[in-house]
Amino acid sequence: MKRDIELVVISDVHLGTYGCKAKELLRYLNSIQPKILVLNGDIIDIWQFKKSYFPKPHLKVIKKILSLATKNTDVYYITGNHDEMFRKFTDFQLGKLKVCNKICLNIDQKKTWIFHGDVFDASVQHSKWIAKLGGKGYDLLIVINNVVNWFLDKMGKEKYSFSKKIKNNVKKAVKYIGDFELTASELAIDNHYDYVICGHIHQPQIREVINKKGSCTYLNSGDWIENLSALEYNEKEWKIFYYDEHKHLLKDDEVEEIQDMDNSELLKIVTNFS
């Protein structure tokens, strides 16, 4: 049985990169029936897109999203920095699928502001070549990490994350994450939002932020490269879904095929944006 969920937010999937966990994301999407699905940026990685590398599981994720949008799910595709090419299609709508740069929702009488978060990143805004170079380095780090973890798994040892180690121990990385969360929260409070939801920094989070002007709840959906996480809202409560904690409950159901669109046609569409 699929779980009925009022709202699901996922971000930073990075389809088209070696680090993307498309199979795991597909299993998750096949296990839920959301009323609203928010894709909060960096879903398809246009920066690092290679026509020679876009495996079937990556295409199946796109098909699944389109399948949800043809049924009873409102799908919002919010653009990020790695899929910024889609920004020229802002406000484009096809059925229940809408492309936008941000959305404001009213969730149980609470104002909710959702955007990717790259607007706070100076390297993205002013020196894109540095950001793109960093993206390639991160992708390479993930590939090396996957190889190391394969050996650790075979040896019966716990997996290790190079990226998390860096984020948790390098002062500049820790400060950047803290500044990002505080900036988003303070802007939300200034504009009287109850919830502010971001992606971009690959750091799942739900926390209350209070200052002299008021308070809000800051949330981040994490990513589908390392954390394999999503935000779920149901019965007036937010939760972070971690794939690794629930994978034993998920089935390998095949995604519903969309008629008249095979994998080669879908890949051509994606290629046109690269």
Automatic annotation (TrEMBL):
Q: Name one GO cellular component term.
A: membrane
Q: Which InterPro entries does the record cross-reference, listed alphabetically? A: Calcineurin-like_PHP, LpxH-like, Metallo-depent_PP-like
A molecular function annotated in GO for this UniProt entry is:
UDP-2,3-diacylglucosamine hydrolase activity
| Pfam family name, one | Metallophos
Any one GO biological process: lipid A biosynthetic process
| Keyword presence, Acetylation | no
Report what the protein is called.
UDP-2,3-diacylglucosamine pyrophosphatase LpxH
According to the entry, what is the taxonomic lineage of the organism? Answer: Bacteria, Pseudomonadati, Bacteroidota, Flavobacteriia, Flavobacteriales
Species for this entry:
Chryseobacterium polytrichastri
Q: Which residues form a coiled coil?
A: none
